[in-house]
Q: What sequence folds into this?
């Protein structure tokens, strides 16, 4: 059954709860998840969109608890638009890397255990994940998307080289569960899920190289060759940026180069 929006769901012995925002779309799937960590002394992760119904639901889930920190994985509106209003409403400090108020290794104390900031750039330069060691859990923001083996990495914000390194940083934490901002959690063999994400990127890289070998040279031609013309209109707008991220990554690896007319593959 589809997840009901606006209802706090207990995920881990009443220590981790999530509230699903009513903002479904091709990019957000069933909506953006706001996570609450702790029982009475809480940390809130990704307040979500600036929607009264959602912010009310998060505040209701907090109840008469005390929020010690409101954390952002990154500043895209579906995660951050409601952040300032929620932080003010809850009387809690807002921590976001883009404002210089979040650094790698920063630790926030809930009554259920520490939440540790982990820099995971790639989706955006300022992207962070949050490690909750007590539950062997990671809140990964948009680094991974539940139920899928890909997430958006598109220029000008995205960097595929950094993104792949961030996946490996999450792997090194050895979590039992990864909670994404969109879609269901990755539970169990999360290493296999990370492998699937990396494998998807490798397959796309091969498709980009195949497009070049077939004669595509411009960014638009390469994107059409790789993604086709049947994508949802909203997603189609991102294919140029995604293709540019692959080309930049391949350029760093010495596999392609820029030309006066676009791009070309280099011989091994």
A:
């Amino acid at each position: 059954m589809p997840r009901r929006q606006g209802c706090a769901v207990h995920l881990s012995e009443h220590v981790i709860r999530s509230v699903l925002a009513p903002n479904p779309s091709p990019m957000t799937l069933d909506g953006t998840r706001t996570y609450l960590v702790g029982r009475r002394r809480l940390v809130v992760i990704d307040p979500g969109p600036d929607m009264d119904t959602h912010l009310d639901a998060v505040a209701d889930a907090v109840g008469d608890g005390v929020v010690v920190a409101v954390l952002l994985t990154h500043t895209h509106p579906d995660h951050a638009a409601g952040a300032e209003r929620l932080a003010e409403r809850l009387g809690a400090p807002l921590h976001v890397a883009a404002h210089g108020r979040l650094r790698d290794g920063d630790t926030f104390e809930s009554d259920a255990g520490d939440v540790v900031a982990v820099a995971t750039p790639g989706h955006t330069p300022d992207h962070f994940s949050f490690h909750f060691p007590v539950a062997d859990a990671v809140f990964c923001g948009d680094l991974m998307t539940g139920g899928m083996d890909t997430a958006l990495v598109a220029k000008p914000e995205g960097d595929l080289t950094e993104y792949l390194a961030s996946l490996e940083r999450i792997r090194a934490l050895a979590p039992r569960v990864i909670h994404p901002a969109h879609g269901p959690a990755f539970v169990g063999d999360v290493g296999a899920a990370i492998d699937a994400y990396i494998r998807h990127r490798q397959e796309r890289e091969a498709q980009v190289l195949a497009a070049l070998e077939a004669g595509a040279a411009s960014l638009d031609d390469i994107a059409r060759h790789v993604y086709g013309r049947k994508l949802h209109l909203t997603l189609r707008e991102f294919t140029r940026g995604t293709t540019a991220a692959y080309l930049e990554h391949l350029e760093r690896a010495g596999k392609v180069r820029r030309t006066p007319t676009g791009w070309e593959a280099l011989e091994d």
Remarks:
- Helices lie at 52-62, 77-80, 83-90, 160-172, 190-213, 219-227, 233-252.
- The first strand starts at residue 9 and ends at 12.
